[in-house]
Specification:
The complex is a heterotetramer of chains A (499), B (670), C (490) and D (106). Chain B is built from 27 helices and two strands. Chain B is mainly α and 670 residues long. Chain D contains three helices and no strands. Chain D is elongated, with a radius of gyration of 18 Å. The chains are: A mainly alpha (499), B mainly alpha (670), C mainly alpha (490), D mainly alpha (106). At the C-D interface, α5, α6 and α9 of C face α1, α2 and α3 of D.
Chain lengths: 499, 670, 490, 106
């Protein structure tokens, strides 16, 4: 069934990572007016990426928690930078999520983007490489490279194909992200000078044995890393770029942003910030947990008063990712599993919500809640999908959102009941704003005549939404397919932190 | 290990899928068949399973190990497993039985609705979740069902989504339930922490409970001293109970249920009367040992239950919407059940769940028949005298009314009597003043129940017709499935009480024994038993008297031509109380004033002040502005004036030389 | 007295500069007759032949071996080592590119004198010598020669008021700074006891003297002026704005590169005297901050790039500080690399501006609006250049920043790295503005290119690609930089 | 009489006068002269140093003098350029006031 890697000697991680970039290269050769061909090629490349990541997951050994399928080649030897890739429980699902959502993102743009199609697809493909690369990179500089490499295409996507205030939003996105990442860059260089390597496993080893950091160093370095990731998450109060970016970004941009890009922050916390500086992380745990909890509630409150659907969902992301950050600082397998699941879940549910908003935006060209209402009668199929996405987002048991939230809240509650209670109240608030939006959006009387003739979902749209629903149910009812992959790594990680 | 159990929830689920996905193409007839057959099949499977467990040779329960659900090897293992014992058997039979009837009823009731297939899909989905709720072998699986039924309730309340109110009611139901679910979730966390599992058998295991009760550090204790806080077991019980108050519409979370009447009437019957709202009671019964280990929690349960019963009954007095009356009556009856639980009579509470399912479903379906006949008129003031046009409906409705009022030997008599006796025993016989007080409350409520139900019957069926002239002549008895369902439920309401005839009346408390909730009297001495029976007799007479009184007063007040209600309302206290009751004691307004509106206002304020002004404008925009301001400043320094440039150069050089010489003078050459 | 003999090494060493000077002379001669007799192409071709010849001559230096220094040539006036060759390489290649672009640019401005080529050649020759010079006299002469040529270049468009203003500002301030430079050299010479060459100065132990520090400081001021270090930077924006775009490109790259190479050699050899590192730190901090801040609100692209250049001088001082601080000296290798990266990106940037400027007026930010729609490749080239200047990964600029900040941290100058990072952050804003204009805005004007734009396009393309390639595979250049720095340290 | 300190004082004095002239005068011509003065002031010092070194060493070192010659050449070239720029300014601006050349700024 699944090709055995051993027999093929495939550098599978490189394939997963670089296939989109090669696709982008291929696209440069194609006539810009041949839009159909460009779209098809991009789609095929992304499916190829999905195929490779499925092969990767198929070959993933769920019994060991260490790095797998490692590729370690010298790259810039003179600067000690290596091309070191690897996958473990932290990244495997996120890679899968990325590869999974991209084909559907491409499908969703077939109608939505009609200007500069070629550049758009090149940007998206490069973005995909950046995202996956960041998930597999085990060399700090390599990671930083991919981390930043995501920035430019995303910046262009918002800035070129975005809405009315796209320039402001794009700039805000870029500068905000740069603020964090430059400090992280500095911290990376510091680590290199301290321990003499950019290689993550080696670094972890040396920091624990030969080159320990003292308290002050840990503190500042952790802050630098955490700042970068907190902005990316985004953690309250560093979140104000997100609503603007989401609102202005085109659908595909929003989907990628919410679906994958934000996870870079929490992934970074788990992969780098906390394991590299465990003591500082423990010292600052309270503060970060409080920020996360504040973010959960604050984001929900903000979502409640939004009138723009995309903005609402953007704030809901702030709230949802607050859960993940909270979990990142709980050193137990349950919470961490919850964190990873929640990342995937949020990617699925919010990604799907943005896709659906995009669909309706194509037809009605407005995102104001007040312009809708009563759509359920006009577009029943659309409504069903939308409600499923909403339910997934508010964590209905049986769908994906619940599993992650349950594990996270449990962990948080066990660590400190107050955190657990406050965070859990975010679940209630989540239902509040989501249902409020659903009500204003789909239900009620059909007051606007413009909504009377809105077209229901087409086959193509059903086609790219259905996989999301399937994944939601799968993750909701049989999450052990996925938790199995994650658990050994997390157990090792927790052990490592406890020592 | 019996994987057939899975079929119980699976049949309705398949019905849901078929109707939901293909419903529009299948046509209404096929939809009806699929939708009704699904719960019937589930009923049959449940019945088969029931037959298996009553076999004395069996262990008394069936179990399906299922598959791993939230499963972290060795850390947190929550399977998707089903458990079928007496308690769930009864619930399954009630759900699928009453459920099937209501499905059938709906075929007639929903005829011609554009959302026909959607309706049945939802209904099937509801059945699925409800069954999952009662079959779940662990709290978390129960929680799937728990929230799932909430979802279906939301969808069905807002079924006619074109009306804003309906959607608002659905939303309210979901949110209020979520508040309860939050507590439920926290309760589960505590269970997980202290019991290490959510499996029902472990949570009800006496050893485990004893161990957790020994826990010295309380819940929410001061982290430094480890003192303060609440006993863990009590905290668990209270939290789970708060969860139950949401689902089962108890103070303070009952407000959603009356609004939920916005949904189609069969839905009110199935979800908001017979099944879903009793799941809180089911939960408590399921975890009986745990609750019993937390007496403080139990007293809270009792107080909340009794107060809810009273409050809802008071409100029911003045409601004019026939469904609202029934809704408050449901809240009140649920309050009864919790009162029973609070005084330790789990068996009585559960018994009341079952009988209530029968007669309340009957009442709702009866009211539905009326509403259907009246072309969706729900105001009782515009009814009256319907006895002539709807004789059959009238008869069944009357049976339901007597059953709920506690007229022997109808179903409600036995269950309510048992509850009242439990209160009597806990209060008067055991000399507990608190329990005594709330026993009085419950007795009063029993009379009030009889009263307002009588009012309802009188206003709807008796007296002069106030029916709109346009409708006159068009009102006629619904036949077909509607009639059939009424018929079956009327019989069940009449005879349901015999399921659990108490021992002093010569019965064997079959239901109590079967569900394992019955408190055995076997270890009592004959003298004690005599006292007990004497108490039971006393209590029964009291309850009979109060029910009779209620019915009688009700009749006197609302019989044709009585001026009593008007006279009462014209007196000062009457006017005051009437207004209070009519306006539901202003609880909704209070919530809106205290919670909802402040919350929204604060959110809006935070959005403007903190998010937009403080963070975005001041901090983010401000620092950008600051940097750009410095940029402008430095830009202005470039004047374009050559002497200025030269001066800068010269001064720069001089300053550097000066500093260098200074340093050299201080430290010498390095 | 010894007979005047020249060794083979000595002859080879002056060949690159010689080729350039000869080319310049021939160009001048060609102008002596009828200026219109020799066509534009011929002049360009001649200049290119000259530059190529210099490149060949440079290559021939490697006959003597790649790494090792040949020791002092011409009685210690100059040397031939990898460091110098690297500097010379940067300069010659830059001059080649400038020549490539010059033809079309000059004819579009209606000026077809070979003088331009001659001046570029002369200054290039002087710069090559500057990179190779190892004593005070040769350094002074080289620096003055190149300055004089560049003054004239700055005012090349004589008919323009702005050009004359810029050139004059440059000249006055340049001469002023030369005074300081010369004074410093005189002091050092006076202290060192009869020696002019760096090694002899170092050997004489003069750098221990307190006064030596003053002399070194004055020399530093002279160089600081050339590379635009605050507070000696005032000329930079005005001159950049007034001067012909192409000349600005040449100045921005070559003057800065050669000055830094020479300063580096001077400081590495003589040790810089007491407190030199602290002075450098102060200057570096002020320069990074002021340069970046002042660039923020510029509407003129040339001014923006001028301030950005000032800021980069601030970054470039960090390796010098690191080297002088006495820590592991090899890590100062980031300087040549950063200069190379800076050269490539700056050339690409000015290449785009050159292509778009019919004369110098089109340098407003708004003039770029919508460039990506009509000229996507030029826009892409400019974008790459800006991204590299901002230090975003996958560009040579990123690797350069990485090396510099890493060195700073490694030598314990975390504060410098922090300030560097903070100011880079500020710089991101103004580097993004042209990108916004090019990609996000709708075209406001048509984009007529200068005649024969292939030269510009080739330059932009080549520099853009080089920027990316050295951003991904910088190994070779990093090694080269490292070895070259090792050679001057002996 | 040769006295190095005296020469150096002279040199410093002339250099300072040069600086003052550059900074304080507004006439471009005077500024140019002051610039020349600065260079030549240093020349005096160089000659002085050169003489001292030539006397103190036996190798016949004449670096200072050579340097001075070079500086003279450079100064001459500089003066040429300066004057031609002066002419240019006069043609374009009709002024030789330093302060009026301030169109480029910011």
């Amino acid at each position: 069934m699944i090709p055995e890697l051993e027999s093929f000697k495939m550098p599978i991680l490189s394939l997963v990572t670089l296939t989109p970039a090669l696709g982008a290269l291929l696209l440069t050769l194609i006539d810009r007016n041949n839009k159909a061909l460009i779209r098809q090629i991009a789609l095929m490349v992304s499916f190829l990426g999905l195929l490779f990541s499925l092969i990767m997951v198929g070959n993933f050994d769920a019994t060991v928690g260490t790095m797998q399928m490692e590729e370690n080649l010298p790259w810039i030897e003179s600067l000690g930078i290596s091309y070191h890739l690897g996958v473990d429980g932290f990244s495997v699902l996120l890679i899968l999520l990325t590869s999974f959502s991209m084909p559907f993102v491409f499908l969703s743009t077939w109608k939505a983007v009609d200007s500069r199609v070629k550049e758009f697809h090149i940007a998206l493909l490069l973005l995909q490489t950046g995202m996956i690369g960041a998930f597999v990179a085990l060399d700090l500089i390599l990671f930083y490279l991919f981390y930043e490499a995501m920035l430019v295409p995303m910046y262009l996507i918002i800035g070129i194909w975005g809405g009315k205030d796209r320039v402001y939003a794009a700039l805000k996105f870029f500068i905000y992200t740069m603020v964090g990442s430059l400090f992280m860059f500095l911290a990376i260089l510091y680590l290199y000078n301290h321990a003499g390597t950019f290689d993550l496993p080696l670094l972890l080893e040396r920091l624990r044995t030969t080159n320990p950091l003292d308290g002050t160093q840990q503190f500042w370095l952790f802050l630098a890393f955490a700042l970068s990731f907190a902005i990316k998450v985004p953690l309250f109060p560093l979140h104000t770029w997100l609503p603007d970016a989401h609102v202005q970004a085109p659908t595909a941009g929003s989907v990628v942003l919410a679906g994958v890009l934000l996870k870079m922050g929490t992934y970074g916390l788990l992969r780098f910030a906390i394991p590299l500086f465990p003591e500082a992380a423990m010292d600052l745990r309270e503060e970060f947990c409080w920020l996360a909890v504040t973010g959960i509630i604050f984001g929900a409150c903000m979502a409640l008063v939004q009138t723009d659907i995309k903005k609402l969902i953007a704030y809901s992301s702030v709230s949802h990712l607050g859960f993940v950050v909270l979990a990142c600082f709980m050193n137990d397998v349950e919470s961490l599993t919850g964190a990873i699941l929640q990342m995937v879940n949020h990617g699925l549910s919010t990604g799907m919500l943005f896709l659906m908003i995009g669909i309706i935006y194509e037809r009605r060209h407005t995102r104001e809640l007040a312009d809708y209402g009563g759509l359920a009668g006009v577009v029943p199929v659309y409504s069903v999908f939308f409600i499923i996405a909403v339910l997934s987002s508010i964590g209905l048991p049986g769908l994906n959102g619940f599993v992650g939230e349950f594990l996270i809240l449990f962990g948080a509650f066990r660590a400190d009941a107050v955190w657990g209670i406050l965070a859990a109240s975010g679940v209630v608030l989540g239902a509040l704003y989501m249902l409020k939006m659903t009500k204003m959006f789909l239900f009620g009387p059909l007051v606007h005549d413009a909504n009377r003739n809105v077209q229901d979902l087409q086959t193509r749209e059903i086609l790219y939404l259905s996989p999301f629903v399937i994944m939601m149910v799968w993750l909701g009812l049989y999450p052990s397919t996925f938790t199995k992959l994650v658990q050994p790594t997390l157990s090792l990680y927790v052990q490592m932190l406890q020592n | 290990m019996d994987s057939n159990l899975l079929w119980i929830p699976l049949f309705p689920f398949l019905g849901f899928l078929l109707n939901g996905i293909l419903g529009k193409r299948l046509g209404n007839r096929a939809v009806s068949v699929i939708a009704s057959v699904a719960p019937l099949l589930a009923f049959m499977v449940s019945f088969g399973a029931w037959r298996k467990i009553i076999d004395p040779a069996s262990s008394g329960a069936l179990h399906w190990d299922g598959f791993p659900w939230i499963w972290l090897d060795g850390i947190l293992e929550i399977p998707f497993a089903l458990h079928f014992d007496g308690l769930s058997a009864v619930m399954c039979l009630v759900i699928t039985g009453v459920g099937s009837l209501i499905h059938l009823y709906s075929i007639g009731y929903m005829k011609g609705d554009p959302g026909y297939h959607r309706y049945f899909a939802y209904l099937n989905l509801f059945t699925t979740f409800m069954l999952l709720l009662v079959l779940g072998d662990n709290l978390l699986l129960l929680f799937i069902g728990w929230e799932g039924v909430g979802l279906c309730s939301y969808l069905l309340i807002g079924f006619w989504f074109q009306e804003d109110e309906n959607c608002a009611a659905g939303k309210k139901a979901f949110i209020v339930n979520r508040v309860g679910d939050l507590a439920f979730l926290l309760g589960m966390f505590l269970c997980l922490i202290y019991f290490g599992t959510l499996e029902m058998s472990a949570l009800t295991n006496a050893d485990n409970i004893a161990q957790v009760s020994m826990e010295t550090t309380g819940f929410m204790a001061d982290p430094e001293t480890g003192t303060g806080g609440m006993a863990v077991i009590t905290a668990i019980a209270i939290l789970l109970f708060i969860g139950a108050t949401g689902k089962s519409a108890q103070i303070p979370l009952y407000v959603w249920l009356p609004d939920a009447m916005a949904g189609p009437t069969p839905v009110s019957a199935l979800i908001h009367a017979a099944t879903m709202v009793t799941s809180g009671v089911y939960l408590c019964c399921r975890l009986m040992p745990l609750f019993e280990a937390a007496p403080m929690a139990l007293s809270i349960v009792a107080v909340v239950g009794a107060c809810t019963a009273l409050l809802a009954a008071l409100i029911a007095f003045t409601q004019n919407d026939i469904k609202k009356v029934l809704a408050y009556s449901t809240v009140s009856q649920l309050g009864y059940m919790f009162f029973a639980i609070g005084v330790g009579a789990f068996s009585a509470a559960f018994f009341h769940v079952v009988t209530h399912a029968f007669f309340k479903a009957l009442l709702f379906l009866g009211s539905g028949a009326v509403i259907h006949a009246m072309h969706h008129e729900q105001d009782m003031r515009k009814m009256g005298g319907l006895r002539k046009q709807l004789p059959f409906t009238h008869l069944t409705f009357l049976i339901g009314t007597f059953a709920i009022a506690g007229v022997p030997p109808l179903a409600g008599f036995f269950s309510k009597d048992e509850i009242l006796f439990a209160g009597y025993k806990a209060g008067i016989m055991d000399g507990n003043s608190l329990a005594t007080m709330f026993w009085y409350v419950s007795v009063a409520t029993a009379g009030m129940t009889a009263f307002y139900m009588m009012r309802c019957v009188a206003m709807t069926f008796w007296g002069n017709s106030n029916v709109d002239a346009k409708l006159e002549g068009k009102v006629h008895e619904p036949g077909g499935w509607i009639g059939f369902a009424l018929f079956v439920l009327a019989i069940a309401s009449a005879l349901g009480g015999f399921l659990n005839v108490p021992e002093f009346l010569g019965g064997h408390a079959i239901l109590g024994h079967f569900t394992g909730l019955h408190v055995s009297h076997a270890n009592m001495t004959p003298e004690e038993l005599d006292i007990l029976h004497a108490g039971e007799w006393t209590s029964m007479f009291i309850s009979l008297a109060i029910a009779g009184a209620g019915l009688l007063v009700g009749y006197l007040f609302y019989r044709n031509g009585s001026g009593l209600p008007a006279a009462f309302r014209s007196s000062a206290p009457g006017a005051f109380l009437g207004k209070l009751s009519e306006n539901k004691f202003y609880v909704d307004e209070l919530y809106a004033f205290l919670i909802v509106r402040p919350f929204e206002a604060i959110s809006q304020l935070m959005h403007t002040l903190i998010d937009q002004v403080l963070i975005d404008r001041l901090l983010v925009g401000g620092s950008a502005l600051l940097v750009r301001g410095f940029g402008e400043l430095t830009r202005r320094m470039q004047t374009g004036f050559i002497p200025g440039y030269l001066l800068t150069f010269g001064c720069g050089a001089l300053v550097l030389i000066y500093i260098l010489l200074n340093q050299l003078a201080k430290g010498g050459a390095q | 007295m010894e007979p005047l003999t020249l060794s083979k090494a000595e002859i080879l060493a002056v060949l690159p500069a010689g080729a350039l000077f000869v080319t310049g002379l021939i160009q001048l001669l060609s102008d002596l007759g009828d200026p219109n007799k020799t066509s534009r192409q011929e002049k360009t071709h001649l200049a290119m032949i000259g530059a190529t010849g210099a490149l060949v001559a440079l290559a021939s230096l490697f006959v003597q071996g790649t790494a090792a220094s040949t020791g002092e040539l011409y009685a210690g006036a100059m040397t031939d080592d990898l460091f110098g060759r690297l500097g010379a390489g940067v300069i010659i290649v830059t001059s080649l590119f400038c020549t490539l672009m010059a033809g079309g640019y000059l004819s579009s401005s209606g000026n077809n004198r070979a003088e331009f080529h001659a001046l570029v050649s002369f200054s290039a020759g002087a710069m090559v010598l500057l990179c190779q010079s190892t004593n005070l006299v040769s350094m002074f002469v080289a620096i003055e020669t190149l300055s004089l040529a560049v003054y004239v270049l700055a005012g090349f468009f004589r008919q323009q008021k702005a050009a004359s203003e810029g050139a004059f500002k440059y000249f006055v301030m340049g001469a002023f700074s030369s005074g300081f430079l010369l004074l410093g050299m005189a002091i050092i010479y006076g202290l060192s006891g009869a020696s002019l060459s760096f090694s002899a100065i170092a050997a004489a132990g003069a750098s221990d003297d307190a006064l030596f520090a003053v002399g070194a400081l004055l020399v530093l001021i002279g160089f600081a002026f050339k590379v635009g270090v605050v507070p000696f930077h005032s000329w930079v924006p005005d001159v950049y704005q007034g001067a012909p775009t192409l000349a600005v490109g040449w100045m921005a790259v070559a003057v800065k590169a050669s000055s830094f190479f020479a300063l580096c050699r001077f400081l590495y050899h003589t040790g810089g005297g007491a407190y030199m590192d602290q002075i450098l730190i102060a200057l570096s901090i002020v320069t990074m901050i002021l340069g970046n801040l002042a660039a923020l609100n510029q509407q003129s692209l040339k001014r923006m790039l001028a301030y950005s250049g000032i800021a980069h001088s601030g970054y470039l001082m960090i390796p010098l500080i690191v080297a002088l601080s006495g820590n592991d000296i090899l890590i100062g290798a980031s300087l040549p690399f950063y200069l190379c990266a800076y050269a490539g990106t700056t050339l690409a940037a000015f290449g785009v501006l050159t292509a778009l400027s019919k004369a110098t007026d089109k340098d407003q930010l708004g003039d770029l609006n919508g460039l990506a729609k009509s000229r996507p490749l030029l826009a892409l080239g400019f974008t790459v250049a800006l991204i590299s200047l901002a230090g975003i990964p996958l560009t040579a600029g990123f690797i350069g920043k990485l090396m510099i900040f890493s060195d700073a941290i490694g030598a314990g100058f975390v504060q410098l790295a922090v300030i560097g990072i903070l100011t880079s952050l500020v710089s991101v804003y103004y580097y993004l503005r042209p990108i916004v204009a090019m990609w996000f805005r709708d075209p406001r004007s048509s984009f007529d290119l200068i005649p024969a734009p292939w030269g510009v396009q080739f330059t932009v393309g080549a520099c853009g690609i080089a920027t990316i390639v050295f951003g991904i595979f910088p190994d070779w250049l990093v090694e080269l930089s490292r070895i070259s720095v090792e050679t001057i340290l002996g | 009489m040769f006295s190095l300190p005296a020469l150096l004082y002279l040199s410093a004095l002339l250099f300072s006068i040069g600086i003052y002239g550059v900074l304080a005068r507004r006439n471009i011509l005077v500024v140019l002269m002051s610039l020349e003065l600065m260079l030549n002031a240093v020349n005096i010092a160089l000659v002085g140093f050169g003489r001292v070194h030539a006397l103190s060493t036996t190798s016949g070192e004449h670096g200072g003098q050579i340097f001075t010659l070079m500086v003279l050449a450079v100064a001459a070239a500089e003066a040429a350029i300066g004057l031609s720029l002066l002419l240019l300014i006069w043609r374009r601006w009709k002024t030789i006031d330093l302060r009026e050349l301030c169109r480029l700024s910011g």
